[in-house]
Amino acid sequence: MAKHDPDLKDRFADAQKAREAALAKFRARADDPEAAERRAQAAAQAAAREAKRVAAEEARKERVAQEKTERLRAAEERRIQEELEAEERARQAEIDRLAEKERLEILEAEQKARRDLRYAARKARKTGGR
Questions:
Q1: Is 15 within the bounds of a domain?
Q2: Which residues in 18-49 are b (16+ Cβ under 10 Å) and which e?
Q3: How does DSSP assign 4-58, residue by residue?
Q4: What is the mean pLDDT of the chain?
Q5: Confidence of residue 1 (pLDDT cuts 50, 70, 90)
Q6: Pairwise CA distance, residues 41 & 20, whole Å
Q7: Residue 21 falls within a domain, yes or no?
Q8: What is residue 128's predicted lDDT score, i.e. its pLDDT?
Q9: Is residue 124 part of a domain?
Q10: Is the model's pLDDT at 127 over the cut of 50?
């Protein structure tokens, strides 16, 4: 056969040689101390990145926990402040209610006194005129 027209056996043989060459290259690279050192460095870098990521995640969790605690504290302070304000409003409303009640009692007493004066004057006119 011609050199440029390989038959099936030749193609299989060439493919087998290529596979063996690739395997030999892979094995040589696996046994290479420089490659092993590069893999070790890559593993160390990956471990460092992972440790940094874990530390960042822990810092984030801590920050989130602190923010949550701060929000809860602020909410509790607002609740207490609102309670105090509500108590003050209720106290002031009670004072206003009592003041209004007293004002109405005084007004009623004044109206009664004027009515009694008018009644006494009318009675005096009736009895004085006889």
A1: no
A2: eeeeeeeeeeeeeeeeeeeeeeeeeeeeeeee
A3: TS--HHHHHHHHHHHHHHHHHHHHHHHH-HHHHHHHHHHHHHHHHHHHHHHHHHH
A4: 91
A5: very low
A6: 29
A7: no
A8: 73
A9: yes
A10: yes
